[in-house]
Amino acid sequence: MISVTCALIFNDQKVLAVRRSQSMPLAGFWEFPGGKIEEGETAESCIIREIQEELGIIIELSDLLPSSEYTYSPEKVIRLIPFSAKIVSGEIQLHEHDQLCWLGTNELFEVTWAAADIPIVRFLEENWESITQNLNQRKNVG
Fold first, then answer.
1. What angle do CA 55, 13, 139 make, to 5 degrees?
2. What pTM did the predictor assign?
3. Can you give the residue range of the structural domain that contains 125?
C-alpha cells in the first residue's frame, strides 16, 4: 500500500483543488494537493514538504481527517491521508499541476476528481461546517 498525504487548504470558505497536468498519471483529473510519504517521514512533515514543493506556499495544519483507501490496480493501492490546512505565507505557484480552483461547499462536484479523492470530497461535503470551524479555532497539529 502506498501512503499519500493531501491537504484540504481553505481560504475564505473555499477549498483548493488542483488539476493534474498532461505529464502526470491521471492527467486532467482534479485532486487535493499532496504526495507520497518518504521513508522516515511523518505524514505531517510530508504534507508540509509536498505543498511547499508543489505550490510554493507554507501551510499550517489544523486537523487530521479520516483517511481513505483506493485500489487503482492490484499493485497500486493508495491510502490517502488528508489534513485540513490554511496558507500562512507565500503565493500559490503551480509546479506540477496545470490549473487550480477554489471550490465552495456547493461547488465540490463541479470538477472531475481523481477516484482516490472522491471519498474525501464526500466527507468534506458532509462535514464542511465543522472542518472549517475547527480550522479557525485550532492551532498546529504538527
1. 70
2. 0.93
3. 2-137
Q: Coil, strand or helix: which one is 19?
A: strand
Q: Residue 91, exposed/middle/buried by CB under 10 A (0-12, 13-18, 19+)?
A: exposed
Distance between first and last Cα of the chain = 24
Residue 25 makes CB contacts below 8 A (sequence gap 6+) with none
Q: Is residue 133 part of a domain?
A: yes
Look at the chain and report how many structural domains it folds into: 1
Radius of gyration of the chain (CA): 14
pLDDT band at 142 (very low <50, low <70, confident <90, very high): very low
92 torsion bin: left (phi>0), alpha (psi -120 to 50), beta (else): beta
Domain assignment of residue 11, yes or no: yes
Query: Distance (Å, rounded) from C-alpha 49 to C-alpha 99?
Result: 20
